[in-house]
Amino acid sequence: MSMAMVGMVAGMALGFAGYFGGFGAFLLVAALGAIGFVVGRFADGDLEPGDFFRVRDRGERDRRR
């Protein structure tokens, strides 16, 4: 399934939730969709838990002008 089709289905689901359930249902569907997206990326192997908890490098910044 193409990403355009996935986006269309997600948009339709959010639209139905907003129309029939109100703004609270819209937010719930959007949050659960985002969580499902992240879990799916973990399942595909595209993300690792360390990607969210990496410590930033505190070294000198390279400032080029």
Automatic annotation (TrEMBL):
Keyword Transmembrane helix belongs to the record: yes
Residue spans crossing the bilayer: 12-39
Domain of life of the organism encoding this protein: Bacteria
Keywords tagged on the record: Membrane, Transmembrane, Transmembrane helix
UniProt-recorded name of the protein: DUF2273 domain-containing protein
Lineage of origin: Bacteria, Bacillati, Actinomycetota, Actinomycetes, Kitasatosporales
